Automatic annotation (TrEMBL):
The keyword Flavoprotein appears for this protein: no
Domain Sulfotransferase, residue spans: 57-312
Family: Belongs to the sulfotransferase 1 family.
InterPro entries: P-loop_NTPase, Sulfotransferase_dom
Enzyme Commission designation: 2.8.2.-
Record keywords: Transferase
Gene Ontology molecular function terms on file: sulfotransferase activity
Organism annotation: Eleusine coracana subsp. coracana
Enzyme class: transferase
Protein name, as recorded: Sulfotransferase
Domain of life: Eukaryota
Pfam families reported for this sequence: Sulfotransfer_1
Primary gene name: ga31636
C-alpha cells in the first residue's frame, strides 16, 4: 500500500505542490477548500476514477468532527440489520471501530485502493469530507446514489477539531490561533460555511437523494433521526421491528456511551496512526463555551450567519 501511495503522491506531486498551503495545519487549498495535504491525491483520484454502482451507493458526507463516527455506526447498523440485528452478540460494531465498517474514500483512493469498494455489498456505504462542489458529477448528480450529510454548530465543530489535532498531531496548537484561522476559512475542510451550504442547497434541490442531518437534532431525538435515516436509505423499520424495539436497539448500540466503552474503541492500537479513543471525547452540544469567550462566539456566529444569509439555514 505504501508503494501505491508513494506512486500516487508522485503522480500528483507537481499539481499538489502548486496549491496554496498552510504548513502549520498541514493543509492545502484544493478547489476552494482547505483539505489535509495527504487527502489531496485521494480527492483527485476520486474525481478521476470513482465508479458508482448501478444498484446504488450511499455516501456519508460531513465536515470532520461533526458526528461522522456516529453516522457511520447508525447507517451501518441500519443497513446490516437483516444479517446482524442490533442486539446480535457478535455484531460487527462490537468488535470494529465504525471507521473500519465504513471506508473513508479519501484515504482509500490516496492509497490506490479504490477498487476495494468493489468487495462491499450493495448498497455500498462509504464516507467523504469532500465539499459538495468538488464531488465528481457521478456522485453529486447521480439519481441512483444517496448522500447523507451531517453537520454541527461550527463552534462545537472547531472545539472538537482543535482537540483532535492536538491529540493526533500538534500538541502545542493554541486554540486562539486555530480559531483565528477558522474565522478566515482555514480549518480542515474549511471554510465551514461553504461546506455546509453546498450540501444544504443540494438537499433542498433534491431531498430524495441528499439527506441533511444535524448533530444537535440527533442528540435531541436519536430515535426519530434513526427512523428518518432508515426511511431515506430505503430500509425503513417495519411495524414488527418497531414492536420488537429494533430502532431503540440500533440507537443504543450506536450511542456514545456504548461505543466509547467498547474495548475496540479504547484501544491504544488501531487501524489509524493514533488511538481509536480520540473519536469519542464528550459527545455533547455546547462544549464551545468552555473554550471560547462570549466575544469569540459572537464573532464566529456573525460570520456564519452572514455567509448563510438567505439560505434558510442557521446555527
Ligand atoms: P466532541 O469532540 O465534541 O466530543 P467525527 O466522528 O466526525 O470525528 O466527530 C467527532 C465528534 O462526535 C466528537 O465530538 C465525538 O465525541 C462525537 N461522537 C463520536 N461518537 C459519537 C456517538 N456515538 N454519539 C454522539 N457523539 C459522538
Amino acid at each position: 500500500a505504501d508503494a501505491v501511495q508513494d506512486h500516487r503522491v508522485k503522480e500528483y506531486a507537481g499539481a499538489i505542490s502548486a496549491l496554496p498551503s498552510n504548513p502549520k495545519l498541514r493543509l492545502r487549498c484544493y478547489q476552494g477548500t482547505w483539505v489535509r495535504e495527504r487527502w489531496v491525491p485521494g480527492i483527485m483520484a476520486i474525481q478521476r476514477s470513482f465508479t458508482p454502482r448501478r444498484s446504488g451507493d450511499v455516501v456519508l458526507a460531513s465536515p470532520p468532527k461533526c458526528g461522522t463516527t456516529w453516522l457511520k455506526a447508525l447507517a451501518f447498523a441500519t443497513m446490516a440489520r437483516d444479517a446482524y440485528p442490533p442486539a446480535h452478540p457478535d455484531h460487527p460494531l462490537l468488535r470494529l471501530n465504525p471507521h473500519d465498517c465504513v471506508p473513508f474514500m479519501e484515504d482509500l483512493f490516496a492509497a490506490g485502493w479504490g477498487s476495494k469498494l468493489e468487495a462491499l455489498p450493495s448498497p455500498r456505504l462509504m464516507n467523504t469530507h469532500i465539499q459538495y462542489s468538488a464531488l465528481p458529477a457521478c456522485i453529486s448528480t447521480n439519481p441512483g446514489l444517496k448522500i447523507v450529510y451531517i453537520c454541527r454548530d461550527p463552534k462545537d465543530m472547531l472545539v472538537s477539531m482543535w482537540h483532535f489535532i492536538r491529540k493526533t498531531s500538534q500538541p502545542d496548537l493554541s486554540f486562539s490561533d486555530f480559531f483565528e484561522g477558522a474565522c478566515d476559512g482555514v480549518c480542515v475542510s474549511g471554510p465551514i460555511w461553504d461546506h455546509v451550504l453546498g450540501y444544504w442547497n443540494a438537499s433542498k434541490a433534491s431531498p430524495e437523494t441528499v439527506l441533511f442531518l444535524r448533530y444537535e437534532e440527533m442528540l435531541r431525538d436519536p430515535v426519530a433521526n434513526a427512523r428518518k435515516l432508515a426511511r431515506f436509505l430505503g430500509h425503513p423499520f417495519s411495524a414488527a421491528e418497531e414492536d420488537s424495539g429494533a430502532v431503540t436497539n440500533v440507537v443504543k448500540l450506536c450511542s456514545f456511551e456504548k461505543l466509547k466503552n467498547l474495548d475496540v474503541n479504547r484501544a491504544a492500537l488501531s487501524s489509524f496512526p493514533f488511538r481509536s479513543d480520540v473519536f469519542f471525547r464528550r459527545g455533547e452540544a455546547g462544549d464551545w463555551a468552555n473554550h471560547m469567550t462570549p466575544e469569540m462566539a459572537r464573532r464566529l456566529d456573525a460570520i456564519v450567519q452572514e455567509k448563510l444569509r438567505g439560505s434558510g439555514l442557521s446555527f
